[in-house]
Amino acid sequence: MAIECVVLGAGQEVGKSCAVVSINGKKIMFDCGMHMGYVDHRRYPDFSLISKSADFNNVLSCIVITHFHLDHIGALPYFTEVCGYNGPIYMTYPTKALAPLMLDDYRKVMVGRGEEQQFTNENILNCMKKVTAVDIKQTVQVDKDLQIRAYYAGHVLGAAMFYASVGDAAMVYTGDYNMTPDRHLGAAQIDRLHLDLLITESTYGKTIRDSKYAREREFLKAVHNCVANGGKVLIPTFALGRAQELCILLDDYWERMNLKVPIYFSSGLTIQANLYYKVLISWTSQKVKDTYATRNAFNFKNVQSFERSLIHAPGPCVLFATPGMLSGGFSLEVFKHWAPCESNLITLPGYCVAGTVGHKLSDKTTKVDVDKDTQIDVRCKIHRLSFSPHTDEKGIMDLVKFLSPKNVILVHGEITNMSYLKGRIQSELGIQCYYPSNNETVSFPTTHFVKADASATFIRSSLTPNFKFLKDEATDMAPVQVCDERVTQGILVMEKGQKVKILHQDELLTMVGTKQTEVEFAYCFPFNLCSLKVPVTDDNSLIHILNTKLSDEVAEFGVQDCMDVIQVNSFHLAVCKNGNCLYRINSHGSTMGSDCVFFCCNWSISDKILAWRVISLIKNMSSSVESVFG
Amino acid sequence: MKLTSLSQSGGYNLPPCHIISLCGFNILFDCPLDLSSLTIFSPISAQTFTRPSSNLHPEMLDKTSLIAAEPYYKTVQTLHLWNVSLIDVVLISNPMGMLGLPFLTRTEGFSAKIYATEVTAKLGQLLMEDLVAMHMEYKQFYGPKETSFFQFLKWEELEALPPALKEVILGKDGTELGGWLPLYSSADVKDCLQKVQTLKYAEEACYNGTLIIKALSSGLEIGSCNWSLQSPKRNISYISSSVFSSGTAMDFDFHALIQSDVLIYSDFASWNGVPCVHSENSSSIVPLDPSAKSDNACMSELLDFDESSEETEKLNFICSCSMDSVNAGGSVLIPIGRIGIILQLLELFALHIESSDIKVPIFIISSVAEELLSYTTILPEWLCKDRQEKLYSGKPVFAHEELIKEKKIHVFPAVHSHELLMMWQEPCIVFSPHWSLRLGSVVHLLQRWRGDPNSLLVLEEGVNTDLALLPFKPIAMKVLECSFVSGLMSEKVPQLLKMLQPKLILLPDYTKAFFNPLNDSLPCLFYTENETLSLPSSKNLLELNIATDLASRLTLSKLKSEELTISRLQGKLILDQGKHYLVAESQKKMTPLVHWGKVDLQSLLLALEKIGVKGSMEKVNIEDGCVLHVFEPNKALIQVEETKTVIGSDDEGLASLISDAVHSLLNGV
Ligand SMILES: [Zn+2]
Ligand SMILES: [Zn+2]
């Protein structure tokens, strides 16, 4: 019973996320992404490592896609339509609805750049037909043994973390997630699970972020300043995700400030995407969700579509143009025209993949080669969006601590962040942590429980319920869990050719066909009545007084069911009037005077500690009196 | 496990109500209201009648017989016999199963956990809010001082009522008077909703660590569900009204209900009248022999009847009848309450109007219509495949959003609103509650159009039409009664049950004649309303998961006489997600739990000698044993009887040594 994980992509890098995990023999592919920074074979994961003979349908139990970003889904049409994978594919409803838009947008960019087309639009549509959509928390039985379940991940609309279990072994693959809510999405949320493995992204593994509201204000201020001075704002984004988040922000700000400057979307795609967002509004944050009945927050009031002729139109405007990171297409075209003008503004995300124009702008260069023939003078202002839909270091640590898996694998990040984070996870949380590079394999044994049939008597005989509340103080991602812990004793029985049984001891005797032979202890000893310092009228009151005194020292005492005996568990004590009592060991000389009585006790082995303690307590009472009275 | 059926009436508008006891928890399935009984009241805009002091012909039912008072609402009477604090879990299968819930949640001592799907909770909330709003209108009409009819109901008055009304009030067996209650308030509704934990389809909710509860699509209505309960003792499936394929809701998800220990089948919405006729000729309706066919063949046979296309046909028929009326200058009034039906009708009407020359407006009048309609546009995950395909291809899942924008459909909260009067034109098509024809705008419109022979009223079959229309008589208006798919067809049930392969099926007693002949292939038990059916504990053994580290530490010993290997087991027993786990605990020295066998005195002496304990045997026969005296290292005594050995000593260490020696001579663990 083991887990074996091959990282085919996003190992010590960001891009082409793809992890193939084999849990107790079932192989699952988590994400099937592409790398935006490459145009050769390196853009896709090396699928040949899954199966040399390309027999993917028999090797893989299923594919799970976490969200619609290309670095998580970009290679999927290639894998299904070109490599021929035909098996089940799971993703959330929004991912299934929005992924084709993303993929086709990217395909067009590729074609526009004159690259060889990796898949056609038809390929995309055929690929999506093979997808089974799932809802958050819906438990899907992939086959008899494999179960998967999606959890809300924030990040982008429909992003999910996926739980998978086979037998007693279980794991979670996070994809990209965000532990704090943003303008339109809620924070990631997951149950407390027993996990053998957590595979988590670590994009911002070494960053702690403060309030994002200050950063949002910065962005709005930069945009407002620019348009107030008659400048043009270019926001290169992909059609989905960031575009809607920023647009909610701007639309709301425009309303409040009563601004009339036009906001444009470059492609019908983004406008179309908004329609999807409207229908899928229940996947956003509660606040946005509640707007459905009055005015759906994705019904943007101030947004219009952009005509190419408007590039050179005078006057200020804000333009959302695809693709993001200025990786080509229309956004790059507009950039060429607008970048040389000082009054204009370009906003870029905090992270741009290496190889894109957006990445080149990172350095404070004034001249940028957009392609091999064109160099652009960059004089416009550049605003870096410092809010990101990824979790920060604290979020990752909180999630790892909350889930407390047996092992952690870090993916989707840079190696320095990963090694730093691994150090924290191992030293602070004591959890084994790995960050394999691409095509490297990590494996370890999994949880396994021996299955046995327990008798109802055994379960009942277990001690009274002892409820324990489990709550994590650091994060409150999941509701309080109640767990019932009992200390229990029983007997395991193995009979040839039968399942292992767990029985109560009485049941074993019946099974063996015999009766119990009791082994008891007994002891009869004298006691000086004066030690009680209270008048004793008869044996019943003596027993009562003794019991009360003992209850000060031993918690089990004090409750009396019977007048003339003390009975605690198997321990039994009574006044002994039999002068020839067999158990008066070493006490035959003592006489039974008016102030002396004998206590006869017996007990079984399970109460031996209790019994000897009580006997010594009683003897001490008696002897202390003797020493006073000489 | 026990099952008590509190109400098995069935039907879309009145789902059945059951309580089961499982693992010590009482679980209530649905909490409906019988709204069809509202028909005993007189609607408000009918002239107020003073009830004649003595009705000379109580058998004669006319509009004056109806009760002119603020209506009371009929709940499941026998549910009130339960102490609400004893209910642990409430499961709501569909919006109609929720309408009585505020009565329960506002009761002192109610502390149960309520589960419903997100959509059922929302639709239920809207239906209840609408009910409260419509009732308020009624109340305003009578004023606050009007004393309730039920509050001061005298037996003689009851006796004087026409039998038809009496039966509604008292039920068939005359016991249901106590089930009538004044309506809850909107605060009660709000409070009730706060106590509901909402679920997605196939989400696993764990109650108390013991029960894993899952809601699975039933196909009846958007968001409505069947239930799967997994407990350490039994896995139970609960099937309420289900529809294999619908034009709006997600398909009936029966795969997840396969192989349960007990299947409670309570979908008999479309059962009435059918059962016994068929049982005489059972061979014709039970053609299947599952062994002869693959599962897939069974399944496709089960699904070959396309309910949704038949439904579409019916809906188209309603549309074309409506268009006939409109063409003749009459209006159409549709008080049907089913959300799925309304949504489909709106789309079909738009098509019919589009292809006709007459442009007739559609009005939807209800206090919650606007919210309800916009809510239906944001729940694609809960819809049937065709609608989901619309999402993927970027089209609206329902057409009404566009139609409202295009001003083909007009939505108003109330019939008296100024905006409505501005827009109003006749003929028109109006959707308006309530189907009982006693509450809501439908009453006003029915008053307006009842004399027009060109107008059309569309009702759902199953309501007592005579009684419902009584206050509006004489009626010149046409009345179209339609039945819609409300559950599985009887013919399909045995086939479905066989495919689900439950170990035991619980069915209502009135289906006995139908299912008894099938008992060989379908293990059935029958339950009777208001009687408790107890099932003996089926599994005496529960699965226990033993942690590997604990298992590896076990010391196994073989019993000579038997083919048995035994071992002591000690750990922490944990119940988590409905499973028992035994995990290792910090190890303590374990004292033997149990001994059996005989102590042979000679062997005992030898064993004692080996550990340096010396003694002498004294064959004193006290009762039926012997005594062995020990004198080294200290004085002690061992008394050996047939089934008991007593060690007498004042020396703890010595007693312990002796007990070890005794232990070695006995079988024990
Ligand atoms: Zn992402
Ligand atoms: Zn990513």
Layout of secondary structure:
The complex is a heterodimer of chains A (630) and B (669).
Chain A (H helix, E strand, L loop, with lengths): L1 E8 L8 E6 L2 E5 L25 H4 L2 E3 L5 H4 L2 H7 L6 E4 H20 L8 H9 L1 E4 L4 E3 L4 E7 L7 E7 L2 E5 L23 E5 L10 H17 L3 E5 L5 H16 L5 E3 L2 H12 L6 H4 L13 E3 L11 E5 L7 H10 L6 E5 L7 H4 L6 E3 L5 E3 L3 E5 L7 H11 L3 E5 L3 H15 L2 E3 L5 E6 L3 E7 H6 L5 E4 L10 E15 L5 E3 L1 H8 L5 E11 L10 H15 L11 E4 L2 E6 L19 E9 L3 H22 L1
Parallel strand pairs in A: 3-4, 4-5, 5-6, 10-11, 11-20, 12-15, 12-16, 13-14, 13-15, 16-19, 20-21, 23-26
Antiparallel strand pairs in A: 1-2, 1-22, 2-3, 7-8, 8-9, 9-10, 17-18, 24-25, 25-26, 27-30, 28-29, 29-30
Helix pairs in contact in A: 3-5, 4-5, 4-8, 12-13
Chain B lengths: L1 E6 L9 E6 L2 E5 L3 E2 L38 E3 L13 E3 L9 H5 L7 E5 H25 L12 H6 L2 H8 L9 E2 L4 H9 L1 E4 L5 E3 L3 E7 L7 E6 L4 E5 L22 E4 L9 H5 L2 H4 L9 H9 L3 H21 L4 E3 L4 H16 L7 E4 L3 H8 L8 H8 L7 H6 L3 E4 L5 H6 L5 E3 L10 H8 L6 E5 L4 H5 L8 E5 L10 H8 L3 E5 L3 H4 L8 E4 L4 E3 L6 E7 H5 L4 E3 L4 E13 L2 E5 L11 E2 L4 H10 L3 E9 L2 E8 L3 E5 L3 E6 L2 H14 L1 E2 L1
Parallel strand pairs in B: 3-6, 6-7, 7-9, 13-14, 14-21, 15-18, 15-19, 16-17, 16-18, 19-20, 21-22, 24-27
Antiparallel strand pairs in B: 1-2, 1-23, 2-3, 4-5, 5-8, 10-11, 11-12, 12-13, 25-26, 26-27, 28-33, 29-30, 30-31, 31-32
Helix pairs in contact in B: 2-5, 9-10, 20-21
Bound molecules: zinc ion (ZN) (2 copies).
Written overview of the protein:
The complex is a heterodimer of chains A (about 625) and B (about 675). In chain A, helix 1 (about 55-60) links the parallel strand 3 (about 25-30) and strand 4 (about 60-65). In chain A, helix 3 packs across helix 5 and helix 12 packs across helix 13. Chain A is elongated, with a radius of gyration of 37 Å. With about 625 residues, chain A is of the alpha/beta class. Chain A folds into 4 domains: about 1-210 and about 390-445, Ribonuclease Z/Hydroxyacylglutathione hydrolase-like (Metallo-beta-lactamase, Chain A); about 210-385, Rossmann fold (3-Layer(aba) Sandwich); about 455-510; about 520-630, 2-Layer Sandwich (TATA-Binding Protein), CATH 3.30.310. Chain A has a 7-stranded mixed sheet with strand order 6-5-4-3-2-1-22. In chain A, strands 7-8-9-10-11-20-21 form a 7-stranded mixed sheet, covered by helices on one side. Chain A has 17 helices and 30 strands. Chain B is of the alpha/beta class and about 675 residues long. Chain B has 4 domains: about 1-305 and about 490-535, Metallo-beta-lactamase, Chain A; about 320-480, Rossmann fold, CATH 3.40.50; about 545-585, no CATH class; about 595-669, TATA-Binding Protein (2-Layer Sandwich), CATH 3.30.310. In chain B, strands 9-7-6-3-2-1-23 form a 7-stranded mixed sheet. In chain B, strands 10-11-12-13-14-21-22 form a 7-stranded mixed sheet, with no helix packed on it. A 6-stranded parallel sheet of chain B has the order 17-16-18-15-19-20, with helices on both faces. Chains A and B meet through helix 4, strand 7, helix 8, strand 23 and strand 25 of A and helix 11, helix 12, strand 24, strand 26 and strand 27 of B. Strand 23 of chain A pairs antiparallel with strand 24 (about 540-545) of chain B, so a sheet runs across the interface. The complex binds zinc ion (2 copies). One zinc ion binds near residues 17, 71 and 176 of chain A. Chain A: Keywords: Hydrolase, Nucleus. Chain A: One of its GO terms (cellular component) is nucleus. Chain A: It is found in: Nucleus. Chain A: One of its GO terms (biological process) is snRNA processing.
